[in-house]
Amino acid sequence: MMSKNGRFNVAYDKEHGCTVVEIPYKGNATSPLYLPDEGKLQQVEEALNKPTIKSWKKLFHYQSIDLKIPKFSISATLISKRSSQKWGVTECFQIGLIFPELWNHLH
Predict the structure, then answer these.
(1) Which pLDDT belongs to residue 73?
(2) Residue limits of the Serpin domain (predicted)?
């Protein structure tokens, strides 16, 4: 769990039911953390577009908060069509091909 008590740029959007916290990253970069109100996740996901994000920037103000974020990681391995063709794998790129075991695992 990452825990930090400090001053962060925070915005609350009543219309979409969402708090946005700008987390300092490297240099002058920041990473936004979107925190939807209870039951508002889909509404916030649908609102993630350029005009809404610009409107949130106008709402930001510095505020002292105790920020706690669970530790997590995201990873993916991607194989390009060109690389796999070099290995002789071409069928997986045919339209309509389904990998049943992977599909069942994901659903």
Answers:
(1) 81
(2) 1-94
